[in-house]
Amino acid sequence: MVRNIGWRVLGGFAIALIGALLAVRAHIPLPWMLGALLLTAATRIGGLGTACPRPARNGGQWVIGTSLGLYFTPQVIGHIGSNAGPIIVGMLFALALAFMGTAILRRYTDVDFKTAWFASAIGGASEMASLAERHGARIDRVATAHSVRVLLVVVTVPFIFQWWGVAGLDPTIPGPREVHGAGLALLIALTCIGGTAFMKLRLPNPWVLGPMLVAMMLTASGIELSALPDYVPKVGQLFIGWSLGDRYRPDFFRAAPRFIAAVAAFTITALALAFGLGALLSWWSAAPIPTLILGTTPGGIAEMAITAKVLQLGVPVVTAFHVTRMVFVVIVTGPLYAVLAARQAESA
């Protein structure tokens, strides 16, 4: 049994790596993530029984979280403070999307209110699934909705930005510039402690936010232990893409085609609104429009941060948008559901 699992993991890693290398050859955007994601998803939907272990995704998230934290120099933090207003608007925009998505899913599918609500909230997929389980919603539909949303955003946004030709508009250089062996070892140890602490405390996105907080505190204090070697971000992207693609199963598109179509329509509408909001926020912020659009897109922290990092589009600002949005949505989604459910019960 153990040997069988080992072969499934090795097979999954090989497929993800092949997908990434093919994407590099094809010059598609974010090749190490998108190539791994697309080929892994295609083979999983095709019935190939490979596997991606949880430590691989945790490792990918650790890479993203640590590399993001290294961007937060004192000067950058001051720049983020000047975007506090647009960031708050981004939080409220995410909440408005939840209401819109709930209305769409209630109108065009057979799911109940609570399932539609948790499926539409733009928070972390695992956090929304946990809330859905706690309130008795259909976890399978909630998980499917977030998988479709993340897939569509991750695949479409980089291609749109590549076609737009906006890469490099807002480059931000991370704090440490050189790799130091001892410093790197200490950085790895401290950020892993941060991730473990966040996991023990059951905080959202522990392997992104825990390492990011530790690295951010070090960088903001002027403590530059080491930069990450150039190949590490590529490995992180590969693991993220592999883990995202591994979520899909042979019956994915056959299970609830009407529900998936409604979620796709909601996601595309949300993306269009995010592009419009990003353009409007440019009147309030000095950040480029593409950076503001990335900050308001309904994607995950890790995926949107990778997009900003690779395309050099204001990594700290995009990260600040998504971290605050995710924390806000996770905090308010449960209490808001209780209020809305009580009003529905009164009016029934």
Describe the structure.
By secondary structure, the chain is mostly helical. It is built from 16 helices and no strands. It has one domain (2-347): Up-down Bundle (Na+/H+ antiporter like fold). Helix 6 (113-120) packs antiparallel against helix 7 (125-134) and helix 8 (139-164) crosses helix 13. The termini are far apart. The relative contact order is 0.19.
Entry keywords:
mainly alpha; 16 helices; 348 residues; Na+/H+ antiporter like fold; 76% helix
Q: How many separate domains?
A: 1
CATH architecture: Up-down Bundle
- Find the count of extended strands (DSSP E, 2+ residues): 0
- Rg, Å, rounded: 20 Å
Principal-axes geometry comes out as globular
Class based on secondary structure composition and strand pairing: mainly alpha
Q: Report low-confidence residues grouped into runs of 5 or more.
A: none
Amount of helix: over 70%
Mean of residue pLDDT values: 92
- List SSEs in N-to-C order: HHHHHHHHHHHHHHHH
Strand content: under 5%
Largest sheet: none
Distance between the termini: 53 Å
Number of helices: 16
Per the CATH scheme, the topology name is: Na+/H+ antiporter like fold
- The level-1 CATH class: Mainly Alpha
GO cellular component, one term: membrane
Transmembrane segments: 7-24, 87-105, 148-167, 179-199, 206-228, 259-284, 291-311, 323-342
Organism: Achromobacter agilis
InterPro entries: AbrB_dup (IPR017516), AbrB_fam (IPR007820)
